[in-house]
Write a structure and sequence with these properties.
Elements: E1 2-5, H1 10-22, E2 30-33, E3 51-54, H2 62-66, E4 73-76, H3 86-91, E5 95-97, H4 104-119, H5 122-131, H6 136-151
Helix pairs in contact: 5-6
């Protein structure tokens, strides 16, 4: 079986190859690794692949699917799959898989961190400390409020 991975970071090829070896699949799977997006011009090189793995930057269109006649599986390394022509995949009976829970906790945590940062003027306060400007009143109020919040036991672990 041939599979091609696209949109990878440099370190991921070694990681994926080690995973194939750990699973005992390195002999059965011929893997191709690329840091680039899959384009229509590249498809001839991957025409024998039965599976491809892409990220959201690679658009899987009908012409790309036409150029990959052996393709049976598309793995998107993301939650979203709007970069894949699902109708064309259905017509060709190509299975499409995504990562349904990718980043759901970290996105929520980051959102709350941004809300707290904005509501407590953390950036303005930090910039004031860096430049030694006179924004101490609002910083002092924010720091005082944050300390009371932390000491009350209501703070989220790891935020302060």
């Amino acid at each position: 079986m041939q599979i091609a991975f696209f949109d990878l970071e440099e370190w991921q090829a070694d990681y994926l190859q080690a995973g194939l070896q750990q699973l005992g699949l390195a002999e059965q799977v011929q893997a191709h690794y690329s840091t680039e997006h899959l384009t229509l011009e590249d498809c001839a090189r991957y025409a024998a692949c039965e599976a491809i793995a892409v990220f959201v930057w690679t658009k899987i269109t009908r012409p790309i699917l036409d150029a990959l006649p052996q393709l049976r599986l598309i793995l998107t390394m993301s939650t979203g799959y709007d970069h894949i022509d699902l109708d064309a995949c259905r017509e060709r009976k190509i299975v499409v898989c995504n990562v349904p829970h990718y980043g759901e906790n970290t996105v929520a945590e980051h959102t709350f961190a941004l809300i707290l940062s904005l509501s407590r003027a953390c950036v303005r306060c930090q910039n004031g400390w860096r430049t030694r400007r006179a924004v101490w009143r609002s910083c002092a109020a924010s720091i005082s409020m944050a300390r009371r919040w932390v000491s009350s036991g209501q703070a989220i672990s790891g935020c302060m």
